[in-house]
Amino acid sequence: MAIFENKQDKTFTLYTDNTMYQMRVDRYGVLQNAYYGKRMEYTDMSYAVYEGNTCFSPNPLDLGYSYSNNHVPQELSVCGVGDFRINALALRNADGSLAADPKFLSAEIIKGKYSIPGLPAFYGEEGETLVITLKDKLYDIYFHLYYGVFEKYDLITKAVRIENKTDKEIKLERALSATLDLPNGRYDMISFYGRHARERMYERTHIKHSKVTVSSVRGASSHMENPFVIIADKNANEEYGNAWGMALVYSGNFEITAEMDLMDKTRAVIGINSENFNYGVGPGETFCTPEVAFVYSGEGFGKLSNCYHKAIRNNLCRGEYKYAERPVLINNWEATYFNFNADKLVSMAKDAAEIGVELFVMDDGWFGHRNDDTTSLGDWFPNEEKLQGTLKSLAERINNEGMRFGIWFEPECISAESKLYSEHPDYAFKIPGREAQVSRNQYILDYSRKEVCDNIYEQLCKVLESANISYVKWDFNRHISDLYSVVLPPERQGEVYHRYMLGLYDLLERITSKFPHILFESCSGGGGRFDCGMLYYMPQVWTSDNSDAIDRLKIQYGTSFAYPVRTMGAHVSVCPNHQTARVTPLKTRGNVAYFGTYGLELDITRMTDEEKTEIKRQIKEFKKYYDLIQYGDYYRLISPFNVEESLYCAWETVREDGSEALVCAVRYDSDANSAPETVKVRGLCPDKLYRINGSEQKYLGSALMNIGFRLAYDFVSYPSRLYHITLA
Ligand code: DGJ
Q1: Does 329-631 carry CATH code 3.90.1010.10?
Q2: Which of 195, 409, 477, 571 to probe ligand 1 with, by most ligand atoms within 8 A of CB?
Q3: Is 0.85 surpassed by the pTM of this model?
Q4: Given this model, what pLDDT does residue 63 score?
Q5: Ligand 1: residues whose CB is within 6 Å?
Q6: Tell me: the pLDDT tens digits for 160-191?
Q7: Does residue 410 carry a catalytic annotation?
Q8: What is the tens place of the pLDDT at every residue in 22-38?
């Protein structure tokens, strides 16, 4: 049983295989967060809760100094009634007050995992949902707190539904998804910052008394921060220490803030960013927050990541490609950019098919009259002159080469120079009387409007029905500014960011369910929307526009803290690399792309025979290790962010039963007369013997994990090796 109610203690305890999350209704009716950490036998954890002192903290009249909202750990933290810490909810009542006082009303355990109308969420037939309803002390406003429990993955989800049963509209000025009040301790926040072509860089910050925030106000989760953080013991590492992960299942504006309060207790909140958020909930209406997925690990980050990986693979990603082998694809973007015609694409497809590539993707530039990035977004009809015929005929030509055919769209944007814009200029975001900003020469479509989404839906369906299309790359190449929807009144403009996301998710739901056989890959100028929200609709994401194998080490390493290898689009491209001008061995480019979806992003017709032979070998090798890489337990072994400790980056995938592992080690820097370096492996059976790459020598599992093995030294720039570890 995952959810356990103890009526006497007034506690609700959620159990996963290794964790325990306990809430308790206190004497004042507040739903406290009493404990979240290692699994224990049931015990009432309320003794550990600190409830108050005199320190200028307001108290309820009848409870005196012993209790204050400013100290109690709360499941739904609110502003206005004496909690001065960061909190999750700011509710403006019809009387103008900014206050809510949610008190326990009822609880229900229901079968299966809840879903959230219109929003992505983890799903699962098995398991239970706990719904706890709180009611405002004064008004008929209800707060339904939903908890989902994924026992095997130590994952607990949470979302809030706010229901207005009064006869007047209320306004949500802040409606975050969760509050996490941590046990006593000193913590760090690990977050993943970046920019275009440099996404998800690992960063570790001490949480002190000032706020630590990662956030986005760009209308997208963004390259700059990711809606996922880990809060961990100051000394936690990959294998050791308490770590709490928080992933928001949402792709728009978000904020995650943590702070230590006046009593040195740490609180974190997570949800939709409150900047330019002001949501009206009319009488009888409800508002649902996005979901948060928590994982607690008592064994450091490696275990935490593995829990997220499994839950995302099994209970977030959907559709025919959830488990199906993903095709090895070739994409023409870096090969041709906008400069191609059908003959060129077909010649690439022909050569690629010969070496084992399975899918050809035609990237940007096939529609309207787009030959650069200044025109045609919004005009989703093929440029038949460039395609030397219809889209159907091009798909057939590609199919005749033995390849499946895929296509690129950027459905959320619009060029000023387009038929759609000339007919519907109001479809683009623009503040009345102000000139809207362009970015990459384009505007954003107002997806908060149903008719705009419908227009795009119809256009996409027409294209996707017109030819044999097996794959779609869904791109988004700018962030949202000049937000204003002409169909909403002034007082509702604070709803537009979230309504945009609801429109986008609805469109994605419609299109992915109408074309279930199509593999959808999400992209936003590379990895600008790599989040759990997008993964619900599209099971892989183009990780970064940076295809340089050495830069990719950091990008893929950072991404792996939450997201599984199976979701990371990774391609081999040419050298000198188009983003960095770096020259790396083709083998290293392949080895790095193996720990992703492995594909190509180059003009295969210009490769030498030797290079083609190497790529053919790589495709075979990738397929040989496919299951191990895609479904194994992934471990980060040597960090590329730590040049002082090692010149290598290494990661590993290992079968759950420890019977086989694959380690990839890449040297990303050099020095003369290098000291020998070793790598310690994880996840093996301690008592079993193993061989490395079929060696004569046998190694004890414990030895490989405690001491490790020496990495081979290759006297070239950026060498890499795979080490296949098998039972002897
Ligand atoms: C950004 C993407 O990340 C690239 O891969 C490519 O599709 C371009 N957009 C096309 O404009």
Answers
A1: no
A2: 477
A3: yes
A4: 72
A5: 333, 363-364, 408, 475, 477, 523, 525-526, 542, 545
A6: 999 999 999 999 999 999 999 998 899 999 99
A7: no
A8: 999 999 999 999 999 99
Report the C-alpha gap between 584 and 545 in whole angstroms.
Answer: 17
Q: Which residue type sits at 237?
A: N
Q: Is 611 a catalytic residue?
A: yes
pLDDT digits (tens, 9 = 90+) for 135-155: 999 999 999 999 999 999 999
Helix (H) or strand (E) holding 537, with range, is helix 532-537
Sequence-separated (6 or more) residues with CB below 8 Å from residue 445: 378, 411, 412, 413, 414, 427, 428, 429, 452, 456
The predicted model gives 437-461 an average pLDDT of 98
Element (H, E) at 322: none
Of all helices (H) and strands (E), which one includes residue 272? strand 266-272
pLDDT band at 69 (very low <50, low <70, confident <90, very high): very high
Q: Is 407 within 8 Å of 475 (Cβ atoms)? A: no
- State the CB neighbour count (10 A cutoff) for residue 611: 16
Say how many Å lie between the CA of residue 198 and the centre of ligand 1.
15
What's the number of CA atoms in the CB half-sphere (13 Å) around residue 395? 17
What fold is seen in the domain 634-727? Immunoglobulin-like (2.60.40)
CATH number of 3-315: 2.70.98.60
Whats the size of the chain, residue-wise?
A: 728
The helix (H) or strand (E) run that includes residue 687 is none
How is the chain split into domains, by residue range? 3-315, 329-631, 634-727
Cβ atoms of residues 145 and 131 within 8 Å? yes
Closest protein CA for atom 1 of ligand 1: 525
Residue of 351, 531, 545, 652 marked catalytic: 531
**How many A from CA of 525 to the centre of ligand 1?**
5
Q: Is the peptide bond before 60 cis (omega within 30 degrees of 0)?
A: no
- Minimum mean pLDDT range among 47-61, 83-97, 195-209, 590-604: 47-61
Indicate which atom in ligand 1 lies nearest the CA of residue 524: 3
Say how far apart CA 303 and CA 18 lie, in whole Å: 11
